[in-house]
């Protein structure tokens, strides 16, 4: 295993890691411990490339604020089985090895779309190979004779997310697909705000439902899908899909492909464009935020100021501090997103079993109307729609709940806390009843310098380190 890589939640949405994060959050640890930090490259600095595009630079943060020797690793895959790229930052790589690497990267690029040719076939010729997950042209059928294949009709071609097997690789893509309820809510809410161009980043089901809706409404809604799952290229015209890695803003199809996004954004002058991104739930908030900022730059290239594209970033609530640290103009909404093929994240559950997945958006919260019949209401003080159990606290002057449970006010802490927490006299704060009482952990001191006044991210030592770099 690559040193350190196994210890961090990368592009990973498996249940376990999400639950782990949830438990950390529940215990008050909020992820402020030892781990890997992504160091974003300075402007113009090239990083070595793996088959998934430019790699990311990682630094392991140790107690005392020192970071160990830094290294490059794949941005998209956590498991070495999926991508075993590893290079120390200061390692010298021979020209021969660079060339071999480039040849390997080229060989791993997927084939091009054949959607247009496939659509021209007769109904009795349109075959899909279930084993290879490929649409087959007549000349290709013989080589799949030993596989299970089936005819596909126009209706199936319009719903690729029902035809394709969701990628369930726990350590990479883990595709959780929206329920009709969540997808419909998103499309309705965005249409109500007047958005007519939809950029779906890692949201293949949303793209197909947007397209279906558009066909019913004379092309009123235009959408483009950016996703690392190249199987989707088979179902779309080249101007509807880009093979894209959202952790490093890499277009596998090079200039031609990034040009598709540029054209999509440029054409939207006068039409309102919105981006909906549903990344795999992992810890790589910083690179995601960086990619979304780069997409925004393409939209606002004529403007001097750094504006953010209207967006909805779908992610678990316990990433709120990290997301807001990177993109402070976003706010978290109470809406609970649920998924078809996820055992836990289902609508109607209560307590800890509710979906932890929320919307982070720069659309004003008061304008995103959450459905009353699903249990949301408008808080006129907070000026946003909230979940029914999120009761307004007059002492905090806000609706405090993040996790969907009813929080309660602690007058000693002077804030609202989770229902399972009790005020601990020894620690002088609220915590779970079985917390490690009196320990440094319980006191939530800074990981780097031990101060009780701030957390690692706000540590002057950490700021100094960043500046030095
Ligand atoms: C949690 S699923 C979201 C699917 C969405 N809920 C839907 O129903 O349309 C994550 C999506 O991101 C894609 N993905 C995973 N890693 C990616 C990467 N590095 N770059 C771009 N897309 C990625 C997956 O293929 C998948 O479609
Ligand atoms: Zn890779
Ligand atoms: Zn096959
Ligand atoms: Zn309120
Ligand atoms: Zn309160
Ligand atoms: Zn308390
Ligand atoms: Zn205690």
TrEMBL record:
InterPro entries assigned: Mlase_EEF1AKMT1/ZCCHC4, ZCCHC4, Znf_CTCHY_sf, Znf_GRF
Molecular-function GO terms, alphabetical: rRNA (adenine-N6-)-methyltransferase activity; zinc ion binding
Record's subcellular location: Cytoplasm
GO cellular component: cytoplasm; nucleolus
Keyword check for Aminoacyl-tRNA synthetase: no
Location of the GRF-type domain: 50-92
Name of this chain's protein: GRF-type domain-containing protein
Native source species: Salarias fasciatus (Jewelled blenny)
Upper classification of the organism: Eukaryota, Metazoa, Chordata, Craniata, Vertebrata
Gene expressing this chain: zcchc4
């Amino acid at each position: 295993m690559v040193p350190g890589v196994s210890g961090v939640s990368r592009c990973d949405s498996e249940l376990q890691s999400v639950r782990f994060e949830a438990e950390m959050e529940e215990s008050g640890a909020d992820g402020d411990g030892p781990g890997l930090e992504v160091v974003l490259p300075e402007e113009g600095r090239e990083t070595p490339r793996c088959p998934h595009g430019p790699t990311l630079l990682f630094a392991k943060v140790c107690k005392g604020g020192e970071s160990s020797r830094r290294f490059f690793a794949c941005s998209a895959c956590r498991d070495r089985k999926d991508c075993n790229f590893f290079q120390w930052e200061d390692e010298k790589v021979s020209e021969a090895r660079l060339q071999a690497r480039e040849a390997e990267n080229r060989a791993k690029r997927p084939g091009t779309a054949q959607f247009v040719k496939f659509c021209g076939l007769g109904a009795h010729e349109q075959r899909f190979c279930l084993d290879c997950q490929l649409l087959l042209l007549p000349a290709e059928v013989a080589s799949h004779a030993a596989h299970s294949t089936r005819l596909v009709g126009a209706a199936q071609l319009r719903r690729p997310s029902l035809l394709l097997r969701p990628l369930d690789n726990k350590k990479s893509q883990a595709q959780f697909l929206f329920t009709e309820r969540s997808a419909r809510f998103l499309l309705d809410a965005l249409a109500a705000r007047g958005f007519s161009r939809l950029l779906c980043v890692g949201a293949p089901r949303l793209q197909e439902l947007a397209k279906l809706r558009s066909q019913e409404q004379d092309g009123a809604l235009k959408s483009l899908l950016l996703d690392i799952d190249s199987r989707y290229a088979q179902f779309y015209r080249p101007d509807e899909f880009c093979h894209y890695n959202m952790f490093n803003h890499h277009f596998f199809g090079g200039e031609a492909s990034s040009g598709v996004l540029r054209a999509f954004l440029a054409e939207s002058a006068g039409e309102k464009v919105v981006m909906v991104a549903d990344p795999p739930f992992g810890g790589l908030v910083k690179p995601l935020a960086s990619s979304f900022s780069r997409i925004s730059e393409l939209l606002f290239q004529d403007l001097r100021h750094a504006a953010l594209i209207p967006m909805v970033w779908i992610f678990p609530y316990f990433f709120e501090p990290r997301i807001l640290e990177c993109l402070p103009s976003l706010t978290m909404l109470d809406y609970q997103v649920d998924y078809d093929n996820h055992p836990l994240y289902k609508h109607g559950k209560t307590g800890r079993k509710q979906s932890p997945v929320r919307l982070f958006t720069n659309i004003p919260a008061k304008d995103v109307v959450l459905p009353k019949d699903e249990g949301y209401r408008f808080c006129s003080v907070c000026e946003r729609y909230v979940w029914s159990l999120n009761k307004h606290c007059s002492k905090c002057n806000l609706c405090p709940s993040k996790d969907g449970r009813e929080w309660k006010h602690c007058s000693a802490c002077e804030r609202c806390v989770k229902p399972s927490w009790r005020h601990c006299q020894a620690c002088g704060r609220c915590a779970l009843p079985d917390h490690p009482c009196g320990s440094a952990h319980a006191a939530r001191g800074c990981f780097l310098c031990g101060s009780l006044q701030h957390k690692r991210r706000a540590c002057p030592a950490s700021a100094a380190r960043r500046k030095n770099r």
